[in-house]
């Protein structure tokens, strides 16, 4: 429905942006105990982070997504 998009908060500036306008970015996190033994415990997790358009452009995330989409579309035409 129009006008019923959920609002997400930008990770960088805190601006509230509709989810369909925000740029989603997956960030990989790794947390470890720091022990260099066999009992070392590591946790790998991917977290979805949302940025507003201006912060995504400033950080270069928006341009990377455009380049990746262009490369994907060129591969599909071959």
What is the secondary structure topology, with strand pairs?
Elements lengths: L6 E3 L6 E3 L4 E10 L9 E10 L1 H7 L1 H17 L1
Antiparallel strand pairs: 1-2, 3-4
Could you please describe the fold and organization of this structure?
The chain has one domain. The model has no long low-confidence stretch (mean pLDDT 84). The strands form 2 sheets. The chain has a two-stranded antiparallel ribbon. A two-stranded antiparallel ribbon has the order 3-4. A hairpin with a 6-residue loop joins strand 1 and strand 2. With 78 residues, the protein is an alpha+beta fold.
Question: Brief overview, please?
Answer:
This protein is α+β, with helices and mostly antiparallel strands. It contains two helices and four strands.
Radius of gyration: 17 Å
Strand order of the largest sheet: 1-2
For the secondary structure, the number of strands is: 4
Distance between the termini: 37 Å
Order of helices and strands: EEEEHH
Helix content: 25-40%
Molecular shape: extended
Low-confidence stretches: none
- Supply the helix-strand structural class: alpha+beta
The fraction of residues in strands falls at 25-35%
Count of separate DSSP helical elements: 2
Quickly count the domains. 1
Mean pLDDT equals 84
Largest sheet: 2 strands, antiparallel
Task: Please give a handful of descriptors for the protein shown.
two-stranded antiparallel ribbon, alpha+beta, 78 residues, single chain
């Amino acid at each position: 429905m129009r006008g019923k998009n959920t609002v997400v908060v930008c990770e960088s500036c805190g601006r509230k942006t509709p989810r369909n306008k925000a740029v989603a970015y997956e960030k990989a996190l790794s947390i470890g105990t720091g022990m260099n033994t066999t009992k070392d415990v590591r946790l790998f997790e991917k977290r979805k982070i949302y940025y507003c358009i201006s912060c995504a452009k400033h950080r270069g995330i928006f341009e990377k997504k455009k380049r990746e989409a262009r490369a994907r579309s060129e591969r599909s035409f071959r």
